[in-house]
Amino acid sequence: MKTRKVQIGDRVIGGGMPILIQSMTNTKTEDVAATVAQIHALEKAGCEIVRCTVPTEEAAKALKEIKKQISIPLVADIHFDYRLAIAAIKNGADKVRINPGNIGSTSRVRAVVKCAADRNIPIRVGVNSGSLEKEFLEKYHGVTAEGLVESALRQAQVIEDMGYDNLVISIKSSDVMMCVRAHELIADKTDHPLHVGITEAGTIWRGSMKSAIGLGIILHEGIGDTIRVSLTGDPVEEVKTAKFILKELGLRSFGGVEVVSCPTCGRTQIDLIGLANQVEKLVAQYPLNIRVAVMGCVVNGPGEAREADLGIAGGKGEGLLIRHGQIIRKVPESELLAALKNELDNWQADEAD
What we know:
Elements: E1 6-8, E2 11-13, E3 20-24, H1 32-45, E4 49-53, H2 57-68, E5 74-77, H3 82-90, E6 95-98, H4 100-103, H5 106-119, E7 123-128, H6 134-139, H7 145-160, E8 167-172, H8 176-187, E9 194-196, H9 204-220, E10 226-228, H10 235-248, E11 258-261, H11 272-283, E12 291-295, H12 301-307, E13 310-314, E14 318-323, E15 326-332, H13 336-352
Parallel strand pairs: 3-4, 3-10, 4-5, 5-6, 6-7, 7-8, 8-9, 9-10, 11-12, 12-13
Antiparallel strand pairs: 1-2, 13-14, 14-15
């Protein structure tokens, strides 16, 4: 999908640029220290644009201090009070997220648009299935993909009619296939960049599954310019899931060790489940762009491990350590993790040289 480029702080979405990862803080924005600490954690995990809710004047004022302490663009999430959108922009927000339908009168929307235009700050027009206007609920007999698209395009048109088109559009639903259908429909009707996500996806496990399915389909169809995975939990997990989705689709490369492991079966004679979980935690420490295989038995283990850069193939209370397809040595089960760590340390040292 060919879309316009939109600049958010020092980042750009749309126009064929890499799909950027967003998340949202769940701290009280008024608490500058807590919000900055969470944003730093998100940055470290790979978040590229962060959004904060601005429900009060104090929150809007806090943005100014938060901006001084972070290095990624900051988006202000606004509902109902147009004055908070204006205050957020004046305090340094790099983008504002509004729904013109809940801002109020045309004059109030116009005041927000003028303030954004004066500073060339993009506006994200957001429509969710939970906030779809009564008009479209009645027209389409409930929440539908068609209703979401028509609502979003109308909201965007309101702002365009005011002479401003520095816009990003989002249409979200917790219904995965409805969300997919909505994006397929809107892709042919606008060239504004699209912020894509499955809203209110759920807990870390369930929400990650729903997001992987929905975003996987949408992004694979060439639709979407920036994404947020919405999870009930630590927002750092949103970023991890988003990176995984983009990497597995071949849309971004983030480096880092990839772990492949077998599902186990009755042939497994070591604690492969425990070992695989330990390995996954271990490799997170290494900025190496390699693949590590953790395999459980002699049937597929050695062959699969040969396809990886480093591998462990389990036997009865022991395992083989394999590097580039060559068996290095046999190791007791209790020493497998330490042996793998030693190999990773050596690999990292070799790359540093």
